[in-house]
């Protein structure tokens, strides 16, 4: 009888212990480097000098590349675009549209959130592994929409 009670206690406790640890899919450093490199190549091909920020699923920056000639403020803005895309699991441009529809109400006042285009989530199946943010394309050359195009080009180079 004691053995049965001890076994039952072990069976009941085992699932509770397993729930204390969570494994989450995230972006590897190699994938982040490959994405940034391909995105930079696309922006350079289009004649744009930009900064690229790639973040993992927890919002930690894995890679930042500021191309020669990119403006200093693009470093902060690229990170914010990536962070917004990750946080809301949608392109930062889409978040910007929703923000506008809500007439400026909402969490845009949170740190590192932006309504600017140029941030794209990195998705594998149903998992958001991270995000890419690019800043630096002037409005006359497509602005944030062009930045997002380069981010998409970078993501497409890596298989998930």
Plain-language structure description:
By secondary structure, the chain is of the alpha+beta class. The protein has a single domain, classed as Beta-Lactamase. Helix content is 46%, strand content 17%. The longest helix is centred in the N-terminal third of the chain and has 17 residues. The chain is globular, with a radius of gyration of 20 Å. The N and C termini lie far apart (51 Å).
Question: Mind sketching the topology for me?
Answer:
Elements: H1 2-18, H2 29-45, E1 51-56, E2 61-66, H3 74-88, H4 92-101, E3 119-124, E4 127-135, H5 143-156
Antiparallel strand pairs: 1-2, 1-4, 3-4
Physical arrangement of strands within the biggest beta sheet: 2-1-4-3
The topology string of helices and strands comes to: HHEEHHEEH
Report the uncertain regions.
none
Question: Overall pLDDT, averaged?
Answer: 90
- CATH superfamily, called what? Haem-degrading domain
- CATH T-level topology: Beta-Lactamase
* CATH secondary-structure class: Alpha Beta
Structural category is alpha+beta
Give a brief rundown of this model.
This protein has 160 residues and is α+β, with helices and mostly antiparallel strands.
Please supply descriptive tags for the structure shown above.
160 residues, Beta-Lactamase, 17% strand, alpha+beta
